[in-house]
Specification:
- The protein has 227 residues and is α+β, with helices and mostly antiparallel strands.
- Helices cover 52% and strands 16% of the residues.
- Strands 4-5-3-6 form a four-stranded antiparallel β-sheet, covered by helices on one side. A two-stranded antiparallel ribbon has the order 1-2.
- Strand 1 and strand 2 form a beta hairpin.
- Helix 1 packs antiparallel against helix 4, helix 2 packs antiparallel against helix 3 and helix 2 packs parallel to helix 4.
């Protein structure tokens, strides 16, 4: 009987299917935490990655038979490499800001947990999932120790009818220069598009108040910070 098998060999296909379902459930649990934080990689992404990683692991262990020359670790290594490509595609770099790094690492970890479930290492897969979710919840507690000092990236569009308006924007965000700046003439008005990096706390209330108090500001957008 194969290692880690719980059912008789003639029912091994059923156990393999249960392993894949377990991996998908664990991927679902990890995806819920990410989706509740409005991340791009949510439930569906984690479930699909978990299903694929566990399926490849099951195939590598039982799908090729005892040929004597096949090493199951070869398929596992290729799964790790493939997940690396998916994670790399999720990471974006804008100027000095990097976005998607935590989501990419989460996908990589989800694949590892799914592979352990596919290999029949049930306690390790379950334990790792519980630990990861608890750590994520703990690190997002509103404690001063866990508050990252990072720059918020803000994209802003405003009319510049006087030379003083760019200075007003700099003072508003407590900065000395723009990260990016573009101006164009539209219907006789100078429209400016700027990107600023600020340490100020930016939330929906701040954006709404800024738009109400400064009619020359046409729009503001805060890019996602990945945590």
């Amino acid at each position: 009987m194969p290692e880690h098998a719980l059912l008789p060999e003639n029912l091994l296909w059923l156990e393999c299917l249960l392993r894949i379902l377990l991996a998908m459930f664990l991927g679902f649990a990890l995806g819920v935490e990410r989706q509740l934080r409005l991340k791009v990689a949510g439930i569906r992404t984690h479930v699909v990655v978990a299903a694929g990683a566990s399926l490849f692991t099951v195939i590598s262990k039982y799908g090729f038979g005892d040929t004597g020359y096949f090493n199951a670790a070869q398929v596992a290594a290729q799964v790790v490499s493939g997940i690396g490509f998916i994670g790399a595609g999720m990471i974006l770099h804008r100027q000095t800001a990097v976005h998607g790094l935590t989501s990419a690492a989460g996908i990589w970890l989800t694949a590892a947990i799914a592979m352990s479930a596919g290999a029949g290492m049930y306690y390790i897969a379950l334990g790792a999932t519980v630990v990861v979710i608890l750590i994520q919840l703990f690190l997002h507690l509103p404690l001063r120790l866990f508050k990252e000092k990072h720059y918020n990236e803000i994209r802003i569009c405003f009319k510049s009818t006087t030379d003083d308006y760019p200075s007003v924007i700099k003072k508003l965000f407590d900065i000395t220069s723009f990260t990016e700046f573009k101006a164009e003439c539209v219907d006789g008005e100078i429209i400016c598009y700027a990107v600023v990096h600020t340490r100020k706390q930016i939330d929906a209330n701040f954006i709404c108040k800024t738009l109400n108090d400064n009619p020359f500001v046409l729009s503001m957008e805060k890019t996602e910070s990945d945590r």
